């Protein structure tokens, strides 16, 4: 009797993103076991991330420090832009050239974890253990934030919301939230300024403020183990506790990001959605990072640096940056999977310390060892990089029989001239069979890269669409297929993966 031949077709490889949480065998074939230096594009294809291009011409001002640990762009009233950044215990302006600002006489900086906000045409700098600073109208000479000789709260957290500045996490007082006078960021002791002592408010006993945010007209106060939502923050002296969430909080100030319709943040159990928490009143099963939960939790426990994040509407990405792990989790925020989680890939990039989105044009700034980088193009300043996509172990619906993989057919978009290594291995091995090929440089039109019935042509030229057929060998109960693509100036993505195997004897 002839041996059975069976096919597995994956129409959108990696469409569901990375899954390291669930048992490998039996997962949906559209999950990936490895998705490195990759994103999920707007068509649901797994493809290469953009490049990390350093724009700073010299790293000399950074000395032997870790690099740029905070970046903030501000548009002045006259339309000109100014970019502030922090590193090497200094505050800088500029991108191509880093120029240290002028600090108040005798002012000393001992760390770089500033929280920077704009308010009423001024830029404010807050950091634990440091007197608050302000750049008036974008001035490169900073002054202390004082009110009648009394300094503003030296908080580690500050936000601009409801017509005021709000500060919290002061040294030796991480249970009080302070607010400035209306429309006055330098008035913390007069007018309608005030404070709220949360000592007896926390729903599960004493907690400490880690972050503040505005969400759906609520003032959100994050503790490490609970979350408070206050209504009426436009008149803070009479605002009221509207809701509280127990047994979950925020463990990293700079992980909090508004995505427009939601607020996401890092907790002890991974990346969470505030909107879903409010709905479910508990730790939701479908958290943002559900498919990589244990991995995220394990890495956050190892994190000795300051976890950072950014939300880029232009790229539909929430980037969670773990500097000590040399790792970035890239969550696709276009929509959720059926269980409420978000698709995710990883960028194992050494030296990304922070990120910031420019409000002026959406430029994504990245703080790195040598200065400020931009997320653009498809080449890193350091050179080429490798995008990796590996399937989950494929059992061809019968894990009890031997499979002899005979053929792999790949439909590839872009990557003209790129070198690609196809990998296949059996039974969870890390030792793969390999076959090298180069992407064709022939230009072929791609169907579906532009919308139907719009001004631009539906069929656009200049995009590679190629099918690579690979003959394979070996056998095992399950097979894993991987693609290592060298990214050198051209975007690369995988449209389809089609495999064929002979199904043999029972094991």
**Overall mean pLDDT:** 92
The coarse overall form would be globular
**Structural class, judged by helices and strands?**
mainly beta
Poorly predicted spans:
443-461
Kindly estimate the percentage of residues that lie in beta strands according to DSSP. Answer: over 45%
Report how far apart the termini are. 18 Å
Q: Helicity, in percent? A: under 10%
How many β-strand runs? 43
CATH level 3 topology of the domain at 4-50 and 387-506: Jelly Rolls
Whole-number radius of gyration? 25 Å
- Number of H/I helices: 2
Characterize the main sheet.
Answer: 6 strands, antiparallel
CATH hierarchy, class of the domain at 4-50 and 387-506: Mainly Beta
Q: What's the CATH H-level homologous superfamily of the domain at 4-50 and 387-506?
A: Galactose-binding domain-like
User: Any idea what the CATH architecture of the domain at 4-50 and 387-506 is?
Assistant: Sandwich
Structure commentary:
By secondary structure, the protein is mainly beta. The chain has a domain at 4-50 and 387-506: Sandwich (Jelly Rolls). Helices cover 3% and strands 47% of the residues. It is built from two helices and 43 strands. Strands 1, 4, 5, 36, 41 and 43 form a six-stranded antiparallel sheet that branches. A six-stranded mixed sheet has the order 2-3-35-42-37-38, with no helix packed on it.
């Amino acid at each position: 009797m002839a041996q059975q031949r069976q096919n597995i077709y994956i129409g959108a490889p990696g469409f569901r993103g990375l899954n390291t949480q669930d048992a490998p065998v039996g997962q949906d074939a559209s999950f990936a076991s490895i998705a490195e230096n990759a994103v999920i594009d707007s068509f649901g294809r797994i493809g290469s991330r953009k490049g990390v291009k350093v724009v700073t011409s010299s790293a000399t001002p950074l000395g032997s420090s870790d690099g740029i640990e905070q970046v903030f762009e501000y548009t002045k009233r006259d339309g000109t832009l100014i970019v502030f950044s922090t590193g090497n215990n200094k505050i800088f302006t500029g991108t191509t050239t880093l120029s240290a600002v002028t600090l108040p006489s005798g002012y000393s900086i001992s760390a770089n974890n500033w929280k920077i906000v704009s308010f009423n045409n001024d830029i404010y700098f807050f950091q634990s253990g440091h007197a608050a600073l302000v750049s008036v109208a974008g001035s490169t000479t900073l002054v202390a934030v004082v009110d009648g000789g009394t300094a503003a709260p030296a908080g580690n957290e500050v936000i601009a919301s409801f017509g005021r500045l709000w500060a919290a996490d002061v040294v030796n007082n991480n249970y009080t939230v302070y607010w400035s006078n209306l429309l006055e960021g330098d008035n913390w002791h007069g007018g309608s300024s005030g404070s709220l002592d949360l000592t007896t408010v926390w729903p599960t006993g004493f907690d400490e403020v880690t972050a503040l945010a505005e969400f759906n007209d609520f003032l959100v106060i994050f503790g490490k183990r609970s979350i408070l939502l206050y209504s009426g923050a436009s008149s803070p002296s009479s605002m009221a506790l509207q809701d509280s969430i127990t047994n979950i909080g925020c463990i990293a100030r700079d992980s909090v990001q508004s995505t427009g319709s939601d607020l996401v943040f890092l907790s002890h159990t991974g990346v969470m959605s505030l909107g879903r928490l409010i709905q479910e009143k508990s730790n939701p099963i479908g958290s943002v990072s559900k498919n990589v939960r244990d991995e995220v939790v394990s890495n956050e426990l190892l994190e000795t640096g300051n976890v950072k994040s950014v939300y880029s509407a232009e790229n539909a990405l929430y980037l969670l940056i773990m500097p000590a792990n040399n790792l970035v989790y890239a969550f696709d925020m276009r929509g959720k999977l059926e269980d409420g989680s978000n698709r995710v890939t990883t960028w194992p990039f050494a030296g990304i310390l922070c990120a910031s989105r420019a409000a002026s044009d959406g430029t994504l700034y990245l703080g790195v060892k040598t200065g400020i980088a931009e997320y653009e193009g498809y080449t890193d300043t350091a050179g080429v990089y490798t995008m990796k996509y590996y399937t989950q172990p494929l059992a061809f619906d019968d894990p009890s029989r031997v499979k002899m993989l005979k053929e792999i057919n790949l439909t590839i978009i872009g990557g003209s001239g790129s070198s690609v290594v196809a990998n296949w291995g059996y039974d969870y091995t890390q030792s793969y069979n390999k076959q090298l090929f180069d992407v064709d440089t022939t230009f072929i039109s791609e169907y579906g890269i532009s919308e139907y019935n719009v001004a631009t042509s539906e069929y656009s030229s200049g995009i590679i669409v190629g099918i690579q057929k690979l003959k394979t060998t070996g056998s095992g109960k399950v097979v894993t297929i991987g693609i290592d693509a060298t990214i050198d100036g051209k975007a690369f993505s995988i449209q389809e993966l089609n495999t064929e195997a002979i199904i043999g004897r029972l094991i």
